[in-house]
Structures are given as C-alpha cells and as structure tokens.
Amino acid sequence: MIFDRVKPLDAILATAEKxxxxxxxxxxxxxxxxxxxxxxxxxxxxxxxAAQKAGPGMLLSFVLAGFVCAVAALCYSELASMVxxxxxxxxxxxxxxxxxxxxxxxxxxxxxYAVGASAVAVGWSGYFVGLLKxxxxxxxxxxxxxxxxxxxFINLPAVVISLLVTWLLVIGTTESARVNAAxxxxxxxxxxxxxxxxxxxxxxxxxxxxxxxGVAGVAGAAASIFFAYVGFDAVSTAAEETKNPQRNVPIxxxxxxxxxxxxxxxxxxxxxxxxxxxxxxxxxxxxxxALLDPGSTALxxxxxxxxxxGREPLSCSREALAHxxxxxxxxxxxxxxxxxxxxxxxxxxxxxxxGQIRVFFAMARDGLLPEKLASVHPRFHTPHxxxxxxxxxxxxxxxxxxxxxxxxxxxxGTLFAFMMVAISILVLRRTDPGRRRPFxxxxxxxxxxxxxLGCLYLYFSLPWQAMAVLPGWGAVGLLLYFMYSRSRSxxxxxxxxxxxxxxxxxxxxKPL
Length: 512
What we know:
Layout: H1 9-19, H2 27-38, H3 41-45, H4 47-54, H5 58-82, H6 89-97, H7 99-136, H8 156-171, H9 177-198, H10 214-225, H11 233-236, H12 245-273, H13 297-308, H14 320-327, H15 331-365, H16 384-400, H17 403-431, H18 444-459, H19 464-488
Helix pairs in contact: 2-12, 4-10, 5-10, 5-12, 5-17, 5-18, 6-7, 6-17, 7-8, 7-15, 7-16, 7-17, 7-19, 8-15, 8-16, 9-12, 9-15, 14-15, 15-16, 17-18, 17-19
C-alpha cells in the first residue's frame, strides 16, 4: 500500500534521453549558479531571527545548517542526474518509493515553495518600509506594515509584491538571464560592502557570551536559517547539462555552499560585533530576564520599549543589515543595502512561486490534482488557474504572519522533502544498483544517513508550532489523496507514459 504504484524509472529516463540536453556547464558556472540561487533571502531577512534564538551563537548555526544542506545536496544530485525532469523531489520519490510517499513529498513542497515565497515577501516588506522611511522620510503606518503578531493589522507591502509577482507569472513575464545575473551581482556586492565596512570595526567583546541560549538555541537558529541555504537544488538539477558531472556537480554544490557559508559567517560577525552596544546581538529579554519568542507580540512590545530608550537590538530590526550600517554611521550606505534587498528579493518570490507552479503542474499531469488546475491561458499560454490559486495562498500568508514563523513553516516541509530524497537514494542503491548514474553520491551509506539524521535534528529543533504544521498539513494531504487523487491517478489507472511533449509544458502549453 505505502510503496505501491511506483512510476517506472525507465519511462521517466526516456523523457530525459529525448530532451538531449547539451552539456556545456563547468564547475565554475555551476558554483556561480549555486551562489546566485542561495544568497539572498535568508541572510538579508533572517539574521534578526537567528540573533533572537542564539545570539552570537548564530555563527555556529550557519555552519550546522550549511553542513546538513551539503550532505542533502549530495544525495539530491544523484537523483537529479538520474531523473532530470520537472517535479523536483516529488518526481524522484515517485520513481523510487511510490505514489503515496510522492504525494506526501509534493504536498510538503507546498510548504517549501509557497510558504517560502510568503516569507520572502514579508522580508522584502521590511526593507521597503525602512527604505521609504530613511531615504524619503515616508512612514507607512504600523497597522498597514505588519501582521497582527507584530503590532499591525495587515502587511500591505507584502500583499502588493505577492499580487504583482502573481500577475507577472500569469502574463508570462520571466526574468531574462541578464537581469538575473545583474541581481546576483547586486546581492553579492551589497554583502561585500557590508563586510568591508563592519568587520574592521568589530569588537570581540560583543561575542560574549557566545551561546546565551545554549546548544538548543544554536540548533533552533540553525533550523530557522536553514531557509538561507535553500536554492542549491538549482545546481543539482543542472546535472544533465554539465560537462563531466561526476567531477563538476560536487564541486559546484560544495563550492557554492562553502562560499555562501563564509559569506554568511562574515556578515553575521559584522552584524554582531560592529556596533557600540555590547548587547546589540544578544537575545532580547523581558524586564524579568525571561527570553522572548521570535515573532511574538511580547517581543514587539519590548522592542518598542527599547526603541523609546534609544536602543534597537539586532533582534528588533526588520532590515537587519541596513540597520547595522546606519548604527555605525554609514547611513547612506545602509540605505543602499536596503535598496539592494528591495531590488533583489522580488526575484526570489518569483522563482519560489514558479517552482511551486512547476510541482503542481507535474502533479496535475500525473492525475493527482484536477486537470483544470493545469488549464492554460489562451493568450498568455501560462497555467493561469494554478498561478492564481498559488498567488492567493502566498498573499494571505504574507499579509498576516511574521517572517520568522513563515520561514519555520517552510523549513518543516523542506526538511521532510530532503529527508525523503536521502531515503530514496538508499532504497535505489539497494533495489537497482546497476542503474546508470551520471553522478554518484560519494560514501553514500555515510552521507545519506547523515542527511536523514541532520534533517530530523533540525526539524525537532524548530518551534513546536512549525513542527505541528507538517503533520497537520500532511493529514489534510492524506485526506485529499484518498478522497480524490488515488482514484484518478494515471499510474493507478495503468497510464504510465511520461509526457514529454513540449506542448504540455507550462510555458508553451496549448489551452486544454
């Protein structure tokens, strides 16, 4: 029952053979691709969240999250090189462990992509509000700039950017490679400038105590900032277009993760040690000395009290990096950092929503979701129904929930999907050891268990609400699967052909 209805791997591989992808990418291009995909949301947005959970110990959190990502990435790469088709971890699981578990992974990926897009939209809102205030003197009322837990009513800027991205996806506007490359340059330049200005004035006394919330706090922050590393799958899914993938894919994966981790550690160090306030990066506590939960109303109120006293710790800022530079006298440069985040983050919202639509489209092609969802607009040739449904969900979450909670919810789905990929690779090595693998995970019986244990450890380090979201969301998914999807599944009905007709791809599809 659990492992039945496996989608034949030979049929899926036939699709890849017909595509005939040209192998043109080397190790350097893959590394740059990974850096562009990874750097962005987490470091710009979640530094404040990590500071509240772990204080200066967030340096260790970045290393822990990066390590778990690295071992998961190596597992991901082997399957991506074997099954290079749309659908991500959903398709891999379908080919190895069967329809039910594939459905659960696809359902969990909604948390990764859609909820992740909401988190980025809220993070963008913080930089947008700060940019208007500090550059133009325009202040958006708090009631319209934050959700209820942050002392507002609705996060209007996050709503606007979510709806704008939805509209762009409906009309078929996508980023060109040139625009995307420019945004990568903007992001990396902004972080480099931040490091150059903050590291020289860093005070090592600010790193004491290093772990004010203990090991549990470091693990909790690592579970949150795991969000900062999501995106490396852009490297693994390019395996079929890579020259000598056995050599270049691991170099691209590990190289990009190491470079991003070094960037993150330097940025976090500058954020912790640059300001004059020795307690700037320590977690915020109430008057009685009790630690306050990130994203809570109590933390918001305490931050207002501290702001009234002329102090705004790192945990209280919605635009952390820009705030640090303003605090050390680089006001205009801080505003430019805010501008860089303002320009770069909407593209991340777009790519996350695009990824979500891709997964939905793959599930609809398999009969697990209504084909009507995959209806294609007669003029724009985009899956407009699916895009609008996704956009409405992203907008509602961004309107009312804080960035930290959204990131944690997203991470719960991501960690589950990554764990299933690691399990899948172990199963496939046992059941089909002779299968051609353009890339083979090194020391797989060490690396894959480390990925599984690492994902479990970070999952159980999440706040209880985020841990509860995954089984609750999964229960809804199971109900939908047994009430609708199982009886309509193409594989269950004996239809096992893989659709590789270009006319069934979202960008070129003809109206149904």
